[in-house]
Automatic annotation (TrEMBL):
Transmembrane segments: none annotated. It comes from the Eukaryota. InterPro entries: Cys_Synth/Cystath_Beta-Synth, P-phosphate_BS, TrpB-like_PALP, TrpB-like_PALP_sf. It is found in: Mitochondrion outer membrane. It is a single-pass membrane protein. Residues 70-428 form the Tryptophan synthase beta chain-like PALP domain. GO terms for biological process: cysteine biosynthetic process from serine. This is cysteine synthase. It comes from Macrolepiota fuliginosa MF-IS2. PANTHER family: CYSTATHIONINE BETA-SYNTHASE (PTHR10314). Its cofactor is pyridoxal 5'-phosphate. The lineage of its organism: Eukaryota, Fungi, Dikarya, Basidiomycota, Agaricomycotina. Keywords: Membrane, Mitochondrion, Mitochondrion outer membrane, Pyridoxal phosphate, Transferase, Transmembrane, Transmembrane helix. PROSITE patterns: CYS_SYNTHASE.
Length: 460
């Protein structure tokens, strides 16, 4: 034995031909399976995950499973790379394909969560003749009508009379009762959301089957201003209704109230946000979304921020919406409201579904995480929609086009040139918008030009 007995033992062991071959084989195999790229890949996510608690796992694909009914088709939507924009910018622009939900929009998630939460809280019970009421510009109504049928409810949708006709046709085909009203300010009792609340309150009274019954109650529950009406004798103030069989089996009117209902936020906090995180393996630099009720940006934004404090959350805000000024200057305001130059009703834009001029619970939940806002003109939204059809074969609705225009503006503003992931929501398909946004005659009459160079120039 010399001075280093261990080293001597190793060299004797290695000098045997069989063990030497095995040793070199293992070393070479290890080195080949760990190329410099795989090392970088391994280290990159690890650096990001220092503060994470999320356990990354594969995306759940539906292709190899049988789902239960129409609600089983909701969520788990793919994230699609927008090739034309990503290639031009060098930055990955990824769209969450929400138009693939069975009701055709991101609102399926919200409708399902609102109905399931109401059932869980004992406010709604299937097959009791109960009716769900909602005030909506259409997408949420279609989602509610779809799920209502699947779960044994009826639906009444109150909507402004200037929304695209195809949404009305979809609602009628789904067996919903529709009331179309003149667009009005939220302080007006006849505004569509206010009317939906009133109709829900009066449901049990007006219902011909139950009108002979003596009692009618309205139950307000927080945090969402849920209205539930019933003809039961139960004393709602005594809070004993959850065990009262009479109450539980009676038809009820339920006001879903997506603007104020916390379930809206939860649908995205529990669904859209985690899905995006999984699909990008936690590598998302920015999330861009429009806000109609604010539920999408609030829930998804808060989830992503909780996973990565540095993720940028940005709003795409159409013409006529006050949210842009709220984010930039703290005041919910749009100059068209003030100057009386409004060309259209509600939010003054041809874009449907996003833009808002008042504070709601869900907007309140969104504001703390919103870093930036981008004003998207009607011309820019139209140009982006046509550009995407021309280069990608993607036929999208107006709010999706706004979102993608805002993604491009964000990337340009940040000076990003390579490797970042910017995620947005592709809320619905162009086939919900034939009569307005995708109708060239309509646009011409509304003085909105179709000019693809608005996109081409910014991409250069
Ligand atoms: C087509 C479309 N896109 C986007 C949104 C906005 O989503 P949120 O209400 O979560 O802000 C809506 C809302 O109704 C919509 O109908």
């Amino acid at each position: 034995m010399g001075w280093f007995p261990e080293a001597e033992r190793w060299s004797t062991w290695l000098s045997r031909p069989v063990t030497r071959h095995i040793f070199y084989g293992v070393v070479i195999g290890f080195l080949l399976s760990h190329t410099p790229t795989s090392f970088t890949r391994y280290l990159k996510p690890r650096k990001r995950r220092e503060t994470e608690t999320f356990d990354s796992r594969p995306i759940e694909l539906r292709s190899d499973e049988i789902v239960s009914g129409v609600t089983g088709l909701i969520g788990n939507t793919p994230l699609v790379r927008i090739n034309s924009l990503s290639d031009a910018l060098g930055v990955e622009i990824l769209g969450k394909a929400e138009f693939l939900n069975p009701g055709g929009s991101v609102k399926d998630r919200v409708a399902l969560q609102m109905i399931e939460d109401a059932e869980r809280n004992g406010l709604l019970r299937p097959y009791t003749g109960s009716r769900i009421f909602e005030g909506t510009v259409g997408s949420t109504g279609i989602s509610i009508a779809t799920i209502a049928k699947a779960r044994g409810y009826d639906a009444t949708i109150i909507m402004p009379d200037d929304v695209a006709e195809e949404k009305v046709k979809a609602l009628l085909s789904l067996g919903a009762e529709i009331e179309r009203v003149r667009p009005a300010s939220i302080i007006d009792k006849k505004q569509y959301v206010n009317l939906a609340r009133q109709r829900a309150s009066r449901f049990a009274q007006d219902d011909p089957v139950n009108s002979s019954l003596p009692h009618n109650h309205t139950l307000y529950s927080t945090p969402s201003s849920v209205v539930v009406t019933t003809t039961s004798n139960v004393d709602l103030d005594q809070n004993n209704w959850q065990n009262d069989e009479d109450f539980l089996t009676k038809p009820r009117g339920y006001f879903a109230d997506q603007f104020e209902n916390r379930s809206n936020f939860d649908a995205h906090f529990k669904g859209t946000g985690p899905e995006i995180w999984r699909q990008t393996s936690g590598r998302v630099e920015a999330f861009v979304s429009g806000a109609g009720t604010g539920g999408t940006v609030a829930g998804t934004g808060q989830y992503l921020r909780s996973m990565n404090p540095e993720v940028i959350i940005a709003i795409s805000d159409p013409d006529g919406s006050g949210l842009y000024n709220k984010v930039k200057y703290g005041v919910m305001y749009d100059r068209r409201e003030a100057e009386g130059t409004k060309r259209r009703h509600q939010v003054d834009t041809v874009v449907e579904g996003i833009g808002i001029n008042r504070m709601t619970n869900n907007i309140e939940l969104a504001l703390p995480v919103i870093d930036d806002a981008f004003r998207i003109t009607d011309e820019e939204a139209v140009a982006m929609s046509r550009y995407l059809v021309k280069h990608d074969g993607l036929f999208l609705g107006s709010s999706s086009a706004c979102n993608l225009m805002a993604c491009v503006k964000l990337v340009k503003k940040k000076g990003w040139k390579e490797g970042q992931n910017v995620v947005t929501i592709l809320c619905d398909s162009g086939n919900r918008h034939y009569s307005k946004f995708w109708n060239d005659d309509y646009l011409r009459n509304a003085d909105i030009s179709i000019n693809l160079s608005l996109v081409e120039n910014i991409l250069q």
